[in-house]
Amino acid sequence: MPWTLVFILTIYLPLLGVSIYVGRKILDAVVTLRSWRRAAVRTVLICVLTFVNLLPIVFFVAFQIEGRSVVPAFAGDNVLIDLLLTYPFWIALVINIQLFVVYALADVIKFWVLRFFPGALEWWKGREARFVVIWFGVVVLYSGFTIYSDTWTVQIVEREVSIPKSLSSLDGFRIVQVSDVQGDGRTTNQKLRRFVQRVNALEPDLILFAGDVVTSGTSYIDSAVSILGELRSRYGTVAAVGDHDIFTSKSRVLGGLLRNGVRVVEDTTLFLNVGSARLPISVVTYTYPQRPMRDRLERLASDMGDPFKIFLVHQPAEDLVEFARSKGYDLFLAGHTHGGGIAFGIPGLGVLAPAHFESRYVSGFYTVGSMLVSVTNGLGFTLAPIRFHAPAQIMLIMLRA
């Protein structure tokens, strides 16, 4: 069974419970405020919830009948499936969970208020229905706007990094970090070319790509690597291997990148000579199906007395970050997380995504000892065709002596 279907089915039952809870809150509120027949309102809500939750059912049935041949249609190749099933499912998921956060928090507050002030029950009943309806409107509008904005926006995130004075020839050196372009039926050739144009417009000295050329299958590999070959920088593009590069066809992805001028490196340190300075870049393959042995990592980091060192990898695993810090690396670059892709919560107060259970390094910059960790949200999609609290990113890192 394809991993996309497994994941969707895994979240389906918990999501169904959330939908029922949110639906009951809305049902009670609407009936209280409008005095409509409860049975009629319930029927409408059941129809809506059934429609937005059709994706797992249809995908599962289609897979049982046709097997893996149907997977591309549910991965963006079929526009009708996306419009009728995929987008409604993921948009409803965002809205339902955001509403669940608000309503559950209100219910917790209600429990403690009524425990200490039982006389407040009537006051609470008179306002609860309005609270539910108002917040429904707020969350729907906010979620819709944020999904649209984050899905169609590419942020340029800039950061200056201090380097030793002895590396003055590297002063102003511009590194562009990209990852997870995920070429597929949704991240089309046209979108990939726009990504490349945005990167080239930054006039980078070096481009570091943290892996994942396509999402699944081999149909998009040749076109994706060809477009990535249009990336331009003074010292070229260096790439690490990503999970999906291996899941699809590692040899075909890596061979295509190499033919198009992208240097792919595995568990090796390469050295760039920039003027009088030497810039070591250790590139490691750290993915679900392939991880380096500890002794190989030790050899990789040995005998480097350089005052500034870069570590490039796909996954920002915590043990790998700690290893790089302990070996005196100064800059750690990764992708993989998509910034969580869909991150629930309230920006400024806290957001949570499945990626947070895998690593504390999910999006943006982190200071670990004297090392800077940079994790980009990437550019394409991996499962959900939308983004929420995790817009696509291109990182521009400028070295300053």
In percent, how helical is the residue content? Answer: 40-55%
CATH class of the largest domain: Alpha Beta
Please provide the ordered H/E string of secondary-structure elements.
HHHHHEEHEHEHEEEHEHEEEEEE
The computed structural class is: alpha/beta
Description:
It contains 10 helices and 14 strands. The chain has 401 residues and is of the alpha/beta class. It folds into 2 domains: 3-150, no CATH class; 156-400, Metallo-dependent phosphatases (Purple Acid Phosphatase, chain A, domain 2). The strands form 3 sheets. Strands 1-14-2-3-4-5 form a 6-stranded mixed β-sheet. It has a 6-stranded mixed β-sheet with strand order 6-7-8-9-13-12. A two-stranded antiparallel ribbon has the order 10-11. Helix 8 (243-259) links the parallel strand 4 (237-239) and strand 5. The longest helix has 38 residues, at 79-116. The chain is globular and about 80 Å long.
Write a concise keyword list for the protein shown above.
401 residues, alpha/beta, Purple Acid Phosphatase, chain A, domain 2, 2 domains, six-stranded mixed β-sheet, 10 helices, 14 strands, 18% strand, globular
Put the structure in a nutshell:
This protein has 401 residues and is an alpha/beta fold.
Write the layout of secondary structure elements.
Elements: H1 3-34, H2 38-52, H3 54-66, H4 79-116, H5 121-152, E1 154-162, E2 174-178, H6 189-201, E3 206-209, H7 221-228, E4 237-239, H8 243-259, E5 262-264, E6 268-274, E7 277-284, H9 294-301, E8 310-313, H10 318-326, E9 331-334, E10 344-346, E11 350-352, E12 364-368, E13 371-375, E14 392-400
Parallel strand pairs: 1-14, 2-3, 3-4, 4-5, 7-8, 8-9, 9-13
Antiparallel strand pairs: 2-14, 6-7, 10-11, 12-13
Helix pairs in contact: 1-2, 1-4, 1-5, 4-5, 6-7, 7-8
